[in-house]
Amino acid sequence: MFIGTKQKKCNIVSLLLSDTYGRLKEALMYLNNLQSFFFGATLLGLVSFVACEKTVETNKIVPFGTKVELGTAESVWFGADTLNGVEISIIAIDDSRCPIGVNCIWAGEARVQFNATQLNSDTASFELRLPTAKKDTLSFKLNQNYYQAVLFGVKPYPSAQQKNAKSRATISLKQLASN
């Protein structure tokens, strides 16, 4: 009889232990799911922050006459706001200037293709070139207003060691007096 009671106590203890082990296992699975959730939420927040930061950076508004530096597929609004301003977008930068430290037959040139757009208006496409270190200027009309675009430079200057550098153009836009 004493042995039977001892056996019953062991069965009850083993039931309690197995139940505790099961609950512990469930708690650990819950924590793993919670960790996965927090990791996913953190990753999503980081990606959202980076995407928002880029949107803010490429859609900036600057006064007419300000020099700005842009790369391919970047844009900037010149003027007081987007309703009255002009958006300049760089479509392509082609830099065929002779790299530093290389003997070339032709000095080459840097070409920058732009689009100029006003809200509720047509888009003007144009190209400015830098055959040397001088600036290039172009005047154009958009929606009854006259503008002057200036290309001051393209960086970095080509180098034999640095072949795939991302080019950036320094530009400015002025609003001219209407005739």
List keywords for this structure.
179 residues; 2 domains; single chain; Tick-borne Encephalitis virus Glycoprotein, domain 1; 4-stranded antiparallel β-sheet; flat; alpha+beta
Question: Between the first and last Cα atoms, what is the distance in angstroms?
Answer: 117 Å
Sheet having the most strands: 5 strands, mixed
Number of strands: 9
Order of strands across the biggest sheet? 1-3-4-5-6
CATH topology tier name of the largest domain? Tick-borne Encephalitis virus Glycoprotein, domain 1
Unreliable stretches covering 5 or more consecutive residues: 1-13, 50-58
Structural class: alpha+beta
**Overall mean pLDDT:** 77
SSE series: HEEEEEEEEE
CA radius of gyration: 32 Å
Top-tier CATH class of the largest domain: Mainly Beta
- The count of helical stretches stands at 1
Shape: flat
CATH architecture classification name of the largest domain: Sandwich
CATH homologous group name of the largest domain: Tick-borne Encephalitis virus Glycoprotein, domain 1
Instruction: Bin the strand percentage.
Output: 35-45%
Residues in helix, %: 25-40%
Number of domains: 2
Transmembrane segments: 34-52
Keywords: Membrane, Transmembrane, Transmembrane helix
